[in-house]
Amino acid sequence: MHFGGDESSGKPLSIIRLLVAVFCIAVPFLFGAACSKEEQKEVQTPRVVVPITNHVREIPQVALASQSINNEPEEMPTAVTETVSLEDEERQPDSPSEIEKPEGQEVLKEEDGYYKVQKGDNLSKVAGREDVYGNTLMWPSLFRLNMDRLGGMKVAEAFDLKWSSLFRLNTDSSNGVNVLENFEAEELPEGLNLKFVTEKDAKENLAKVAQKIWVVSVISSQNMKSLVPPAITLMKNGYRVYISEARVKGRDWMRLRVGFFETHQEATEEGEKIMSMLGEDETWVTRIAQSELENYGRY
Questions:
Q1: Residues 7 and 148 grouped into a single domain
Q2: Which end of the chain is less congested by CB atoms within 10 angstroms, N or C?
Q3: CB count in 10 Å sphere of residue 118
């Protein structure tokens, strides 16, 4: 009976020991699993956080770089254009061609002092234009300023016989006189550019002769035909001639005069040369009024 009682009391002890053994075996597994999870958490945390963190950091950088790249093509040319524009504006005052703008005014400035011959024009008609001299008797000024043009081969071919032989004839011969008598009224070739004295040039010319009030009176006539040949001859020999008007005893006269000289003696000496050149018996020296000097000394 005693033996059986010991056996019954040992069963609970065996059970307890079994449970303890199971517990001891299970605890390491549970602890390992827990550690495993913690290690996974510890390992996964940097793996998850780092990519996210890097991604978050990289996105603004990429966006900024992209924005910078997109802006540069738009902003850089604009900046360059503005710089070039400013440089051009700063250079403009140093450039004469830019100062004389607009272009339309530049062209007019280049043509200032020239008249383009229209169909039917002659020297007297051109001289009488208000935009030239406004006086038909001023044609000698046009001839003197344009002798090279009027005597040029191309121009001469465009004239009739009188014009083409004008610069080759002997003005002392009767034939020469006949050729010259009406030449100032001969039609000029259309398109010819004739130079004339501008207002600016007129002021400069007048300043040069301001004190030269002596002239040589060559011929007085009521007929232009008698004045033209000697006028041409004198101009071809370098003299400055002009034709003035005078009313004497109720009659209108035209006077062919050569100017301008500073002294009476100088005018007298030139008068003698002129008489010999033209074959005239006499010329006379006269002191002109200030008004005549201003009217004709300008041209």
A1: no
A2: N
A3: 13
Question: CA 236, CA 144: separation in Å to the nearest integer?
Answer: 8
Asked whether the CA dihedral 147, 151, 156, 162 is positive or negative, the reply is positive
Q: How far is Cα 51 from Cα 60, in angstroms, rounded to an integer?
A: 15
- Rg of the chain over Cα atoms, rounded to whole angstroms, equals 57
Residues 3 and 85 in one domain: yes
Half-sphere exposure of 102 (CA within 13 A, CB side): 1
Residue that has been written with the tokens 């004339």 in this structure: 196
CB-CB contact of 147 with 140 (8 Å): no
Number of domains in the chain: 2
Structure tokens at 33: 């699993």
For residue 216, give the H/E element and its range: strand 214-221
Query: Do residues 197 and 298 lie in contact, with contact meaning Cβ atoms separated by under 8 Å?
Result: yes
240 in Cβ contact with 140 (< 8 Å): no
Stretch 282-289: mean pLDDT: 94
**H helix and E strand count, the chain:** 13, 6
Q: Identify the domain boundary among 111, 139, 169.
A: 111
Tens of pLDDT along 122-157? 999 999 999 999 999 999 999 999 988 876 645 555
Q: Residue 276 has what pLDDT?
A: 93
Owning domain of residue 45: 1-111
Partners of 257 in beta bridges: 217, 242
Place of tokens 């802006």: 71
The answer to whether 150 and 189 are in contact (CB under 8 A) is: no
Q: Which two tokens stand for residue 124?
A: 């007297």
- What pairing do the DSSP bridges indicate for beta strands 284-287 and 240-248? unpaired
